[in-house]
């Protein structure tokens, strides 16, 4: 298959590129700056300068690559900045909205002509974006931005269904990465395996749904 991973230079994105390349897929790894680990994997292509907050830069980065018929597009890029009620900070809230909620939509819009007619799109969200599942409060910007992503992902699923393109909102688990200070319940290997399993399992009939990496449906 032809697969694009956006946010591929570390964490869950890097591991997705590793596993999918190992499994023989043609992987297009989008990132801002490639690291040695990503280069070492030798995916089909590494597309740098892809900052999901800068539409002009995204377009310029993509221009040299005539990508067609992508089977999967997985948007992984995300940003977590702590924000409690006490240190509520508009600037960091907006920053997280720009990366977490607007970035994925700009990515899908730009890569739409590159998708196969029956492509699957996954947006890595978080169960912290679930309003129904919020039992601990706090994390204002992150929660708000991921809820907004969930809302936008639902709209995308409606807008793209008639083209045969499915859109899923996926929670990767609590994963030991830089984002979590390497705290978590699972490692990137397990998370990426679960995400790939979900991508294989889910079909157009499931478009617009929200899943935990362990296979459980999540409430909005
Ligand atoms: N880890 C968890 O427990 C957990 C839980 C729930 C959801 N998630 C979600 O899963 C995704 C991956 O998280 P992770 O744990 O792998 O995080 P990570 O290790 O911090 O990686 C974040 C990735 O996002 C990229 N990124 C950030 N800002 C960007 C921008 N403006 N343009 C393009 N790329 C940008 C980073 O690239 P740079 O190196 O260029 O900054 C990096 O590749 C995120 O969407 C996150 O919200 C993670």
Could you describe the 3D structure shown?
- By secondary structure, the chain is α/β, with parallel strands linked by helices.
- It has one domain (2-212): NAD(P)-binding Rossmann-like Domain (Rossmann fold), CATH 3.40.50.
- Helix content is 38%, strand content 18%.
- The chain has helices at 11-22, 36-41, 55-62, 90-111, 140-161, 188-201, and strands at residues 2-6, 26-30, 45-47, 70-75, 115-124, 166-171, 209-212.
- A seven-stranded parallel beta sheet has the order 3-2-1-4-5-6-7, with helices on both faces.
- Helix 4 (90-111) links the parallel strand 4 and strand 5.
- The longest helix has 22 residues, at 90-111.
- The radius of gyration is 16 Å and the shape is globular.
- It binds NADP nicotinamide-adenine-dinucleotide phosphate.
- Residues 7, 9-13, 32-33, 51-53, 76-79, 99, 124, 126, 171-172, 174-175, 177-180, 184 line the site of NADP nicotinamide-adenine-dinucleotide phosphate (NAP).
């Amino acid at each position: 298959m032809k697969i694009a991973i956006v946010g591929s230079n570390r964490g869950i994105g890097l591991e997705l590129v590793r596993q999918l390349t190992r499994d023989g897929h043609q992987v297009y790894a989008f990132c801002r700056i490639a690291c040695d680990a990503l280069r070492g994997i030798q995916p089909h292509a590494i597309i740098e300068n892809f900052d999901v907050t800068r539409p002009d830069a995204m377009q310029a980065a993509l221009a040299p690559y005539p990508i067609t018929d992508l089977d999967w597009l997985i948007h992984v890029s995300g940003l977590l900045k702590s924000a409690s009620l006490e240190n509520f900070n508009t600037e960091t809230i907006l920053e997280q909205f720009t990366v977490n909620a607007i970035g994925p939509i700009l990515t899908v819009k730009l890569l739409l002509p590159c998708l196969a007619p029956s492509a699957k799109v996954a947006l890595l969200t978080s169960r912290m974006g679930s309003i129904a599942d919020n039992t601990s409060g706090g994390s204002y910007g992150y929660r708000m931005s991921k809820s907004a992503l969930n809302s936008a992902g639902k709209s995308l699923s409606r807008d793209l269904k008639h083209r045969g393109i499915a859109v899923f909102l996926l929670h990767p688990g609590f994963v030991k990465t830089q984002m979590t200070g390497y705290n978590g319940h699972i490692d990137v290997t397990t998370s990426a395996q679960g995400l790939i399993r979900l991508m294989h399992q889910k079909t157009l009939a499931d478009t617009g749904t929200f899943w935990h990496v362990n296979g459980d449906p999540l409430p909005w």
